[in-house]
Design goal:
With 127 residues, the chain is an alpha+beta fold. The chain is built from 2 helices and 6 strands, in the order ββββββαα. The strands form 2 sheets. The chain has a 4-stranded antiparallel beta sheet, with no helix packed on it. The chain has a two-stranded antiparallel sheet with strand order 2-5. The protein is elongated, with a radius of gyration of 30 Å.
């Protein structure tokens, strides 16, 4: 897209300019400054080119959709088949350390029942 790309804040000639990240279209009559800062990119193209690109991109999507489905199916099957093997190895290697969790209130630990609590549980079961 050589020569078709302009940055926000630049002078632009007559035409239509599209910002693909926001979907915004700017129409400039004679000459003007494109809105935004230097991080925003605008592309100039004639409306006929944009309208013709839609069906072509749709055709490419429809053509590759079966391959995307096959790739997703293979990925799902491999995760289910190998997840148990590698998941167990990962849990053994990670030592239950999760750096993305804070544990500000303390880590939940399994509590052991005292002998008295065990007896009361057994008595409740017998009743």
């Amino acid at each position: 897209m050589i020569g078709m790309r302009k940055r926000g804040g630049e002078m632009a000639g007559k035409g239509n300019y599209w910002n693909f990240s926001t979907g915004e279209r700017i129409h400039i009559e004679d000459k003007g400054v494109l809105p935004g800062d230097r991080s925003q990119a605008y592309y100039s193209a004639r409306p006929a080119v944009v309208l013709l690109a839609g069906p072509v991109l749709g055709l490419a999507y429809a053509a590759f959709l079966p391959f995307i489905g096959i790739a997703m199916l293979v990925s799902l099957i491999s995760r289910k088949a190998l997840g148990g093997v590698f998941g167990g190895a990962w849990k053994g290697a990670s030592f239950s350390w999760k750096p993305s969790e804070a544990y500000l209130a303390g880590k939940k630990r399994k509590t052991r029942k005292t002998d008295e609590e065990k007896r009361t549980d057994e008595e409740k079961k017998q009743e």
